[in-house]
Write a structure and sequence with these properties.
- The chain is mainly alpha-helical.
- The protein has one domain.
- The chain is built from 3 helices and no strands.
- Helix 1 runs antiparallel to helix 2.
Length: 65
């Protein structure tokens, strides 16, 4: 499951990454893209998504505020 999540996140961010890479010299784009993807993957792995609140927990929290 984790690999699927990582792939989905990377695919979702790909257009934004490509857009931002246009600000970089052509010869550096591939390297920078790889570095950005590695950073994103590292951040994904640092998070514990099992601790995320459910939809209903978020609603309840919102109502209590």
């Amino acid at each position: 499951m984790e690999n699927r999540l990582e792939l989905e996140v990377i695919e979702m961010l790909k257009p934004k990454i490509k857009f931002l890479l246009r600000q970089t010299d052509l010869q550096n784009r591939d390297d920078l893209e790889q570095e950005l993807i590695l950073i994103i993957l590292k951040k994904i792995k640092e998070k514990d998504y099992n601790k995320l609140p459910s939809f209903f927990e978020l609603i309840e929290e919102d109502q209590n505020e």
